[in-house]
Amino acid sequence: MKRLSARLLARAGSTGAPPVSAILQSPKSSGDRHQRTVGSAGPADCKLGTEGLQPASRPCRGGIFKSQSILLPLFAAVFNAQTILAAGTSVSPLQQLVDDAGPGATVRVPVGVYEGNLVIEKPLHLIGDEGAEIRGTGRGKTVAITAPDVTLEGFRIRGSGRDLMDDDATVFVAADRATIINNSIDDCLHGIYLKKVKDCRITGNVITGTAIVADTSDPGDDPENCDASTPVGGPGNGIHQWNCERTEIAGNTITRTRDGIYFSFTNHCRIEGNKVSRVRYGLHYMYSDDNTFEGNRFFANAGGAAVMFSERVTIHDNDFVDNRGSRATGLILLSVDDSVIEGNRIGKNALGLSLNQCNRNRFIANAVDGNHVGMRFGGNSDDNAFSANSFRRNLYPAEMTGESGTNRWEVAGVGNRWDNVAPVDFNADGIGDLPHRELDVLGSLRRDFAPVSLLAGSPALWLVRFAHQRAALPGLNTIQDNSPLLDVAPAGRFFRPKP
After folding, report:
1. What is the DSSP-derived secondary structure letter of residue 79?
2. 3-state SS of 125-137?
3. Spatial distance between the Cα atoms of 477 and 483, rounded to a whole number of angstroms
């Protein structure tokens, strides 16, 4: 035993590996706590088993010491009796360490590359020191969480499978109240996949997919700069949710995935402060109600956000900018009802805002500025209210496929800001006294026959617009704002977005 102790201590103090590489703290009392140490390799003539040292016919790697009487004499000079330790190695039996931890334990994993795939089947807090990596096998799920109340923090996690039908992901969550925080995730199909779970937190992660995206230092200049084409095997989504409730997704950075954040049948969630770029859709969202998106930035994507077939969605203070690909709309709303869209910046897109079959929504204090087409408005949308928005510096302010119908373009006497509003304001309140009419003469022709766009600045169309501003011409699709804002009136004077 003395010779074995000396060999182990010499190995721990040798160069090339730290003497200690993981700390496991258990909430159990010191009286019933088991000690664990995982070594890079056991002695050539032993097997490390649950009953101490046993003869073995070959060297063993990553064995488990279970006898407290062996561990404490060896490591008393370094560790106290309430600490379970594992020596850092490039290949670690991390699964064994997790399996041996008690429910609710905190497992600290030091720098090193640890083999996946890892399954966590009990409540646990798994923390990786800087440089700790869980590397998957390239098949299945790198980390699968199947028990509630698990926290996964501080790792680089990579190497998932590529089977969409099997829900392969770098981190797969199938239990409630999981917390995935401050991890770096790459080389993945889906980054984080949440399936039928409640009350999870996904915060501070950096997710990098495998999508092939053209790189450019100025994504606003090239209309085809974001070709999120799919390589063989196809990337999945950055954060994918299906049939979930009350998820918090905050402060994550996502790039080069298929879609950045994906929602399906997922309700009562809060998505705040995320950055999503160089993906297909920054947000791809359907059949999900009562969710809030605030302070996110969706930029340099093939499309900013597509929100579909949902109710009571709050979209506040987000950026949908620099989206110029084939799906180059800043914000698409399809069959969205009873929602609030306020204080967002929608600019430098091929199309800023698109509404189709949307009813009873409020659009307040949004800046839809500097797009090729400011807004596409379907005649099948009714009872929407627009107030204190800016529709400025768009090459085409509005494209309409029907009459404005029952939609209102002012609320409580406050309209919106447009280019070329007649500067008539007798009472000097910053609201124009003459109605402003936005006319779409070319309509969908500019999409079906691109050369038609060359007529946009022609004298003939200018004359039609001039006449229509003075007296509405019959038979033309028109937006009429009876209380347009003038340049001297900041929108914030009339409306303050809700916190």
Report:
1. -
2. EEEECCCEEEECC
3. 19
pLDDT at 69: 27
Residue 211 pLDDT more than 50? yes
> Could you tell me what percent of the chain has a pLDDT over 90?
53
Beta-carbon neighbour count of residue 10 at 10 Å?
9
Q: Is the pLDDT of residue 222 over 90?
A: no
Residue 331 contacts residue 346 (beta carbons within 8 Å): yes
Tracing tokens 């905190």 back to the chain, one arrives at 106
**By the 8 A CB rule, do 236 and 165 touch?**
no
pLDDT value of residue 478: 81
CA 169 remoteness from chain centre: 15
Contact between residue 388 and residue 364 where contact means Cβ atoms under 8 Å apart: yes
Nearest Cα to 293, choosing from 280, 277, 282?
282
pLDDT of residue 445: 57
Selection from 99, 113, 175 nearest residue 144 by Cα:
175
Nearest to 313 by CA among 294, 289, 286: 289
Contact yes or no for 19/12 (Cβ under 8 A): yes
State the greatest distance between any 2 C-alpha atoms of the chain, in Å, as a whole number.
Answer: 103
Cα 318-322-325 angle, rounded to 5 deg:
120
In angstroms, the first-to-last Cα distance of the chain is 67
Give the tokens for residue 159.
């190497």
Residue 351, Cβ neighbours under 10 Å: how many? 25
What burial letters (b/e) apply to 183-199, b meaning 16+ CB within 10 Å? Answer: bbbbbbbbbbbbeebbb
Structure tokens given for 239: 């954060």
At position 84, the amino acid (one-letter code) is I
- What gap in Å lies between CA 283 and CA 254, rounded to an integer? 11
| pTM of this structure | 0.76
Distance CA 79, CA 172 (A): 34
Q: What is the mean pLDDT of the chain?
A: 76
> Could you tell me which of 435, 400, 403, 443 has the C-alpha nearest to residue 418?
435
